[in-house]
Specification:
single chain, Rossmann fold, five-stranded parallel beta sheet, 14 strands, Methyltransferase, Cobalt-precorrin-4 Transmethylase, Domain 2, 3 domains
């Protein structure tokens, strides 16, 4: 929809489909209020970050005054259970958050889906492309909050497909870049369920680009290394050689590293990377709330102290290219 920035929009209902409506309204610049006694974790997350208002109650007569746009949860029909057919799973990489960066093949899969299994980082506005009656399963995956285990997600994909439905697993970025797409694909294949992958635009390159940061640049970086900051240096589960990374001469891109950024920067400095190396953190990439913080290896953790996930960190000369920064 085409809205004037600042349009007051009211969304009634708090399920994942409503979250898709909210995301689309935010992308159009609307000021969004959600009214629902309870909401999906995706809406709760947006409210917690101050991007929308959520009123945890039922609708009353006075709520309609002053709202230029009113949306409610759509009601549709479910597929005829008497029609036997073979189910399948399509793993769709949704890109960094803007539904415009989701591939044509990904959109076609969403439009044809009987079931969509989505999490917090999926481009929620893309859920508005689903047919009425499509089952939408919210698996949350909020850091430190409500979530669904990977094992249970795998089970959901197999169960729904075995019931004869076409299932889309919609997630942010690319399925196979820290997205556990390989685990989900294996779970389907081992269960004898037909599965295919629709790759997505990875946030590792897209989010820095949207902030004016090229991960490679002539004369500055001939390569880039993408690492997960899910666990800090020295953790028993960490397999990264930070000393080698510090001297590799490539741009370092850190995903899922908001909580561990300070430890990662310290390990890189200990490994020999100059403390005045440019660094940047891009939060809410590809979203209207995108924010960029720039500093150096020695100061980026302090500069980004107010940043919350999702965010991408970039360490290297490309974070401060003259004319782009």
């Amino acid at each position: 929809m085409d809205l004037t920035p600042g349009t007051r929009a009211l969304v009634i209902g708090g399920d994942v489909r409503a979250a898709g409506q909210v995301a689309r309204l935010l992308a159009d610049g609307a000021e969004v209020t959600v009214i629902a006694p309870s909401v999906t974790p995706a809406i709760e997350d947006l409210a917690g970050r101050g991007l929308i208002r959520w009123q945890a109650r039922d609708l009353d007569g006075g709520d309609l005054a002053g709202a230029s746009v009113l949306l409610s949860e759509p009601i549709g029909t479910t597929p005829d259970p008497g029609v036997p057919r073979a189910g399948s799973v399509t793993l769709v990489g949704g890109g960094p958050g803007d539904p415009g960066l989701l591939t044509v093949a990904g959109r076609e899969a969403i439009e044809a889906a009987d079931v969509i299994v989505a999490d917090r980082l999926a481009p929620l506005a893309a859920l508005t492309w689903a047919r009425p009656g499509t089952e939408i399963v919210d698996v949350a995956k909020i850091p430190g909050g409500r979530s669904t285990s990977q094992e249970r997600i795998n089970e959901l994909l197999v169960e729904r497909a075995r019931s004869g439905r076409h299932v889309v697993r919609l997630k942010g970025g690319d399925n196979h870049v820290f997205g556990r797409g390989g685990e989900e694909l294996l779970a389907c294949l081992r269960a004898g369920v037909e599965a295919r992958v629709v790759p997505g635009v990875t946030s590792a390159t897209a989010v820095p680009a949207l902030a004016g940061i090229p991960v490679t640049h002539r004369g500055l970086a001939q390569g880039f290394t993408v690492i997960s900051g899910h666990v800090p240096p020295g953790h028993p589960d960490s397999t990264i050689d930070y000393a080698a990374l510090a001297t590799a001469g490539t741009t370092i891109v850190v995903l899922m590293g908001v909580r561990t950024l300070s430890a990662i920067c310290a390990a890189l400095a200990d490994g020999g990377l100059a403390t005045d190396t440019p660094a940047a953190v891009v939060a809410d990439g590809a979203m209207p709330s995108q924010r960029v913080v720039r500093a150096t290896l020695a100061t980026i953790d302090e500069a980004a102290a107010g940043i919350s996930p999702p965010a991408v960190a970039v360490i290297g000369g490309v974070a401060d290219v003259p004319g782009l920064a």
